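Recap quiz, item 2
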Amino acid sequence: MSNDTIDAATEARMIRIMRYRDGRLPPQEAQAVAAEIAADPEAAALAEAFAVGDAAARSAWADLESGPVPLALARRVTEAARARPAALPMLSGWRAAAVVAGALAFGIAATVLMQRDHGLRLAGIEANGAADAAWKPALVSALGQEPALAEVGFGDGKAHVAITRWFDTGTAMHCAEYRISGATAQGGGIACRRRDGGWDVIEQDQ
Amino acid sequence: MGREIVALLPRLRRFAAGLSGSVQDGDDIVQAACLRALERHYQWEPGTRLDSWMFRIIRNLWLDGRKSAWNRLVHSDDEALAAAAGGSLEREIEARDELARARKAIAGLPPPQREVLMLVTVEGQTYEAAADTLGIPLGTVMSRLARARVAVARSVRETGAAAQAGKAAHGGKR
């Protein structure tokens, strides 16, 4: 059976079984297809093929979704976004103001936080070693209090990390914007949750 | 919008690699798509899904690239493209790499089936959302999706069986 020469009846059957597998059939039709699969080896083979095809398709490029983004690519996109202030009206007014104020206050454009030893995705917070800034454990703790706009102190107790906003990227990806205030550390950034439940700092002012 | 797009990068890379058949080509497309999205940010309707909009841009860039003069020169037709995508994978296939078999199976699909498979099976879009993203009828989505999944299943089985046979011929050594 070549892929190009499937007759109409066969195609209708393929689609019926596919929709059954995908849970897209009304209950009554679904029962009929379940019976068809149980009774007919050819129908069962088709159902099995959908399962095998799905598993293969999902595994093929899964490492790109779970692995690190090349730094050059992430940086190029970040810089392009920054070079186009016209994109800022997409953000709420206060947010745009905060970005501008932040850039003025620190005098340095926000950059993608890079972790040389671990590659990038863009940088796992918990992967950072002892040499790390004290704000990171505070950030992890604040992120753990989702959906609150939590504020967690660190260092001398006067410094703190504050979550200022939670947002979704329109996908399973859940992110938080945060600000760091303290004598030794200042700035802010964006952290997003990984599939494994950990957090990545996507972007960090320096 | 820049930050939201950066957060989408892992999924955009997966989608573009699936379409183009290679990580390198996919990343080139993703970068071009992100720059285009930032240039035309006003075309995105807030409240609609940013990922679907990005997928559409990536898909259009990929199709444009396939039509380009350079691409026609390098890949004379679909079969050549699939062969090129698979060619660099031949050694991995000899290494009995299941992943490489799955990638080759996807690269071997006709492009219209490939894009539907990537959107629905890999990205998890509904049939309806994929029809909207691609601008094609729902029935066409289902037809292409069913064919794509069966073809991928057949391809991984065939190459898997070939790998098994090769393994046996080499005394079962890995």
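Residues 92-96 of chain B have pLDDT under 50 and may be disordered.
Chain B has ten helices and no strands.
End of item.
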